Amino acid sequence: MIGHNNDRKGHAGPTLVFVMRLLFLFLTTSSLALPPDHAQRMARGLKLFDSEVAALLKENCLKCHGGEKVKSDFDMATREDLLRGGSHGSVVVPFDSKSSSLVAQINHAKEPHMPDSSPKLPEAVISKIAAWIDDGTPYSAPLIAGKKPKKDSSVVTEEDRQWWAFRPLKKVQAKSIDELLLKNAKGMSFAPKAENEVLVRRLHLDLTGLPPDQTDQTDQTDLSDLTDRLLTSPAYGERWARHWLDVARYAESTGFEQDYDRPFAFHYRDFVIKALNSDMPYDQFVKWQLAGDEYEPQNPLALAATGFLGAGVFPSQITANEVESSRYDAMDDMLGTTASGMLGLTLSCARCHDHKFDPLPTRDYYAMLSTFTTTTRMNVDVHPDGKVTSAVTTMNAKKNTPAVQGATRMMICAEGYDPIVMHTQGGPFFDKTYVLKRGNPLMKDGEATQGFLQVLSKPGDAKRWQWQPPAGSKSTGKRRSLSNWITDVDGGAGALLARVIVNRLWQHHFGTGLVPTPNDFGKTGTPCTQPELLDWLAAKLIENGWKLKPMHKLILSSRAWQQSSDRDAKKEAADPANGLFMRFVPYRLEAEAIRDSMLAVSGVLDPTMHGPGTRDENSKRRSIYFNIKRSQLIGSMVAFDQPEPLVSQGARPTTTVAPQALILMNSPQARQWAEGLAKRVSGAGDAAKQIAMTYRLCFHREPKPAELATGLDFLKNGASLADYCQVVMSLNEFVYVN
Amino acid sequence: MNTFPMFDRRSFLNRFGLGLGGIALNEMLAKASSPADHGVLGGTHFAPKAKRIIYLFMSGGPSHLDLFDYKPLLNQRNGEQLPDSVRGGQRLTGMSGNQSSIPMVGSPFKFTQHGHAGGWFSELLPHTASIADDICVARSMFTESINHGPGVTFFQTGSQIAGRPSFGSWLSYGLGAENANLPSFTVLITKGKGGQPLGSHLWGSGFLPTKHQGVLFRAAKDPVLYLGNPAGVSADSRRLMLDRLKELHEHQFAGTPDAEIQNRIDHYEMAFRMQTSIPEVTDLSDEPQHVLDSYGPDVKTPGTFAANCLQARRLAEKGVRFIQLYHQDWDHHGGLPGALPKLCKETDQPAAALVKDLKQRGMLDDTLVVWGGEFGRTAYCQGKISTNFGRDHHPRCFSAWFAGSGIKAGSVYGETDDFGYNTVKDGLHIHDFHATLMHLLGIDHERLTYKFQGRRYRLTDVHGKLVKGIIA
User: Fold this and answer.
1) Residues 5-34 of B with CB under 8 A from A
2) pTM for this structure?
3) Which residues, in sequence order, are bridge partners of residue A539?
4) Which of A507, B1, B29, B375 has the most CB within a 10 Å radius?
5) CB contact under 8 A, B230 and A513
6) How much is the ipTM here?
7) How far is A591 from chain B (nearest CA, A)?
8) The CATH number of B52-223+288-470 is which of 3.40.1190.20, 3.30.70.890, 3.40.720.10, 3.40.50.920?
9) How far is A331 from chain B (nearest CA, A)?
10) What ranges do the domains of chain B cover?
C-alpha cells in the first residue's frame, strides 16, 4: 500500500516511486524478490527502451495489444498494464525473460506464436526485448502518449469506498419517517389519510396475508392496537417468512434432472417463521443462518437455520470431470445468496473477473468463498438431550425416522457430520479452495485464504472477526468469523446489512423499496430514492437491538403508510415512480396470500403450523406449507408469480395472465371455497344481507349500490349463491391491497 | 391508439413501474403502447424468414454415430483402442472417465446416402432419409456440457445453469403472440418415457415476466390446467358468471380507472376463449385418415410423439410462436443396438411426416422445424465391448437437423474426423444455433435483451454468431 499511496500523492522522486510501485506489484502479484542490483539494471533497461525497444514494441505488438485492439485483454501501452498480463495470466516477469511467456511466444517456443500471423521476429530483435525484460521492463513513457494505466480493479480505493452503500450510516437528525419524506417532497404533501376500514384491511393483509376476520368488522378499530395484535399473531411469521424464503431461494429438492427430495429441509422454513414470530434480532437471524451450528451446536433451531446455505440447487449426477467445478458451483450458490440476500451485492459476478462496476475484486470473492470450503449439506438427528448425530447420507432418503425416540431429523448445511452423498465420482468437498482464473478450476492461481470484502472492511486487524472454535469442535469457525464481519456495524458490513433489511421491510409495506432493486445496492442497481430515510431507518434498527417488529410498527404508524390509494393525476405526473411516497399505490397480493385469503373467507383455513409440507392442492393449510419441489412446483402458485427457487429473488413480478383466470374460475379448490363462503353468508338473511356480508368478508366494506344491484339481479335470475361468491372472489379487488 | 379509456401511458407506467423495478423504461413504454401484445420489440428487427419454431428435442443424447454421421473406420477398427492422437490429450468425459480401455465400436446399422447432397442416413431413419432434400443436417454441433441437466438447459436457455429465460420465453417476450386465443409458447412431452426427467425451468421464463413461460400441454383431458368447468358448472352458467364479473369490474373501473382491472377483464375473456380454442386445437377428429396415417399408428394414442407432432402442426396453424416437443430416453450407455431402433421407430416417421405435412400445406414457408439432442455419444464403447454395447456422453460433436423457411434444404453442414470424435470443419455451437434461429425469425440476437440485477441479459449471453452455412 505504501507504493500505492506514494504514487497517488506524488511526493517522492520518480525513481523512488518507480521502485516502490514495483515493490507493491511484487508484494501483491508474486513473491519474487527484487534483485539486489535492480536499480542499475532498471537504469540500463530504460536506455534500451528509449533507444530501441519502445519502437520495436510499437511496430510489432502494440496494434493488437493496446493500440487498435486489446486482444486477450493484454495491453502493453503502459508498464502497469503490461505487468498485469492478460486473460491468460502473466505475460512478462520483470528481471526474468526466461519465465516470461512473451519471450517464449516470440521465440515460437510456446503457442500462440507472436506476432500473430506474421513471420518470426529476427533473433536480434528478440534478444533486445529479452534483455529489456531482464533489466526490469522499465518504461520512460507510455507507448501511446498520454495513456493512463487501466484502473486496477483488484485494488479497492478510497474513492470506491465513497459509494453511498459502502459508507458508514449517515447520522440523520429526524423525529419521524414523515418528516424526512416531506423534506424531500418537492412541495407536495401526503394524500389524505385512508378510511379506517381500508386501513384495517390493509394492515391485516400486510402483516398476516389474511383478510380481516369478523371481529374487526367495525370502523372503531384502533390502528395502533390492531398493529400490536397482528404483530403478535402467528400468522405474521407465516406471511413474512415467505418474503424471506424468496430471498433464500428456498426449496425442498435438489433441482436438476433427478430433483431428489430433501425430506428434512422444511425445518429451515420453520426456523424462519419461528424467528420472525419471536422477533429474533436480525443480526442473530443472520448469524444463525450462516453459522448457527457454531453458535449453539445443540440448539435445533440454530442448526436448522443453516438450511439457508443449503437451500440451493445441486446436481445429483456428477462425473469425475465435474466434481470440482460442481463444488465451486455449490460454494458460489452459498456465497452468492449470502451476498445478494444479506448485502444486496452481485458478488457472483466476481467469480470469473473483477466485478465490472462495483469494487469487488476476484480475490475478495475467493477469500470469501473459502469460508465455505468444508461446508456441505448433511442430515443430522438432534436428540432430546441435545446430542447431535449424523443421520442418513443417501440423497433420496425417505422419511425414515431417527433411531432415538424424540429426536428430530433435519437437513443442515454445516461441517463435521456425514455429508449427504450424491451420485458422484468424487468426494463431497475439497480440503482447499483456490483462486481460479476466469472461474476455471483447471486454472488455479494459489490457495485462497479466508478474508472479507475490502470495501466493507475498515482497515485494521482482520483477525478481530476471526473466531477460533473451542478444542474438539466440529467446525473450522470460518462461517462464524464471516458472521462476525457481516454484522459488524463499525468496521465490517453491518451498516449495509441493516440498510438492505430495512429496505426489504419498506418494500413489502409499500410495494416498492427505497432502493427499488432490493438485491442490488451496487452501481448497476437503481439508486436509492430516499437515502437519508434509509440510513435513518437502518440506524433505528440497530438502536432497537436489530428487532424487526418495532420497525414494522414505526413504518405502519407513519402518515406515509396510511395515505389513501385514491388516484391523483397531478402527483402521478410529477412523480410517476412514486419515489417521493406522497401517495399509496395499490399492489397485488402474492400467490400465497391470494390462496390463503380464499381459504380464510371460505371459513376452512387450517391454522396448523410447522412440520412437513404437502403438494396436495386440496390442503387447507396456509400456502407456506406447500412442499416445494423444483420440478413440480404448485401450478396455482406459479401462475400467480411464485418464483422458481433457483437464485435469490428480491422482488416478484406481478403478472395478469389467463391461466390465473382459469384457476380462479375452474379449479375444484376455487369452487369449493366459493361454496364455503356461500355457506357462511347463507344465514345472513335475505339476498341483500348475504351480498353485504360477502363484501364485508372479502373486502371489509359495504357493497356500493351498483354492486348490490348487480348481485341482486344475478341471484334473482337463478344463479346460485356459490356462483355469486365465486364471482366476487374473482374480482381484482380481492387480490389487491388498496 | 390507446385502448385503455381514461388512461394514459404515464399513469400506466406509474401503476406498473412499481414492483417491476428492473424493467427498463423503454421496455415499459413498448408494453404500454402495445397492449395487444406485439412483444417488446413491437415487430422484428428485419424481415423474418419464419414466424414460428417447432423444436423436436431428443432428450438424452442420440448417437450421431448410429444415425447421421457415418464412420466406416470405426467398423474397420472395431475393438481397437481409440488412438491417443484423436483425443489429443483431452480428458475422457462422463462415466467412462475411469475406464482403462476405450475400444472403438462401429455402428451395427447400415448407412446409405440420400438426397442431392448425398448425406448419410442410418437404416433406422428411413422416413427422415425420405425428406433429405427438405432438411439441412448439421454434423458439427458441439457443446460444453457433458451431463443431461446442464446440457438440456444449455440448449433451452443459453446457459448451463438453470434460471435463465428459455428460448420460447424470449420469443414470446420479443415478438408477442400471433393468436390471442392461445398461449404463444407451448410444450408437449411424450408421455410415459423414462430417462432423464425434464424440469419446468426448461420452459420457464427465468427473470422475464411469467406470462412468457411455456404452457405445458398435458396428455390428458385438460391439456391446460383447469380448462374444463368444475363439476356442477355448465358453460351457460359460466358465461353468465363472466358477464356479471365483467359488470362488477366495470363498476370498479368507473370508480377507479385502473389498467389492471381492464387487464384482468381481458384475461378472463382470454381464459374463456381458451376453454374453447384449446379443446378445438387438441381434438384430432377432423383430421383426414391419410394425414393420420402419415404420422404412423401411434398418432391415435394421446401423448405419443406421433400425436404430439400432429398437435404441433395444429398449434402452428393457429399461430403459436414456439412449440416445444420433448422425447426422452436417448441416453444409451448400454444396450444401444436394442434401444436405439425402438426410439427411432417412435420418432422417425412422425418427425418426417410433420415436415411433409407442413410442406404440403405451404407452412414450411414460415415455420422452422429443428431436431436434436443435448450432445452426442462416444466413438468408443462404455464398459466392455460386446454386441450389446453402449456409448457415453460426447459433447465435442453431434448431429441435428433443420427444416423450413430460410434453411438450406437438402444440405449437409460441418464435418467430423474419421472417428466421429472431433469436429474438423464448421463447428456449430449452441450460442450460434440460437443466434441463427433468431435471425431467421427476424431478430438480431444481440438486440433482444432484458435488464436484470444490473446487467442486460440475452439468450446468447455474450456470444453467438450467425451460421450462414445453414441458411438458404
Assistant:
1) 10-11, 13-15, 17-22
2) 0.73
3) none
4) B375
5) no
6) 0.72
7) 13
8) 3.40.720.10
9) 14
10) 52-223+288-470
